[in-house]
């Protein structure tokens, strides 16, 4: 009786040990697979983030340069005056050139951090840094684009109530270039929104 | 010999069971403490988030209402014309009123989700929803504020190059109100930036 019971006891622990070790191995494997797939999807996001940044640099650089170089000289002039439109005739356009150039510089500087997130897809700090600075910079980008858009609208349509006459009838090419710059900067806003959402998804607990 | 070995075998499993159960209890306690402290700081963030939203509602409502009610009638008039300035004289100000009203409505609708994050501070989905919509809405808010600011600047200073004369010399009170609205909307931008950063910190793995 006693022998039987001990035999049973001997049997039990060995099976328990086996099964528990089996479970441990299984869970370890599962954990490894989960970590790898989580890291993989996060790395995919990080690569997409990097590519978006490069595209956004192209958009903001285009916006800033097109606005900076936008000028038009009318083919007629008086004895004292030559009619010329330039980006620095309007303070809002000056602000646009400076602000969008700052945004492009920030994007350039953020590329190394984006590369860090590709190399270490599960690191939290670089993601958080990118998200916070992206949020601040997108407001600068939006402010520049919206302010310039308001002035471009005025230049196209004028305003009867305030007696501000449209200038685009004379300076059509200038207005065309300035509008292009505003559109390019607006496209960059959408890139930034996607960048922020990518960072948020990469930050969240899997 | 056989009896001894079985006795030892009986002894081993009991100690193993004891120690393993001890470890499990310890880890459970540890996990519970970690969850409680993480949840506590996240709940604090969620409450701060809620209060910021209420303040941002106040700021955006103020901005929208002040702009909407901004008008000034000059004390002199001709036979055909009464000189009056109104927010809907300028399309940018109309856009401002509508956009900032949308922002205020969104903030109001986001309050229940913010309450969910207070009740369930470790829930990921409501945080992610708030962060994504906050990001989209902050660009709308910034666009409205920046466009109105550009026009207010023009109303104050005019522009010699385009022959747009300042109107604030005549409509001083109107310009004052419009400027107040722009400042209130700009304050809301800062609230939004803090809200997005809060959501990001709450989302990240502890």
UniProtKB/TrEMBL annotation, chains A, B:
- Summarize the protein's role: Regulates membrane-cell wall junctions and localized cell wall deposition. Required for establishment of the Casparian strip membrane domain (CSD) and the subsequent formation of Casparian strips, a cell wall modification of the root endodermis that determines an apoplastic barrier between the intraorganismal apoplasm and the extraorganismal apoplasm and prevents lateral diffusion.
Subunit record text: Homodimer and heterodimers.
Q: Which organism is it from?
A: Cardamine amara subsp. amara
Asked if Plastid is a keyword of the record, the answer is: no
Protein name from the UniProt record: CASP-like protein
Q: Which residues form the Casparian strip membrane protein domain?
A: 43-191
Which NCBIfam families has this protein been placed in?
A_tha_TIGR01569
The way it spans or sits in the membrane comes to: Multi-pass membrane protein
Q: Has the keyword Cell cycle been applied to this entry?
A: no
Look up the record and report any one GO term of the cellular component aspect.
plasma membrane
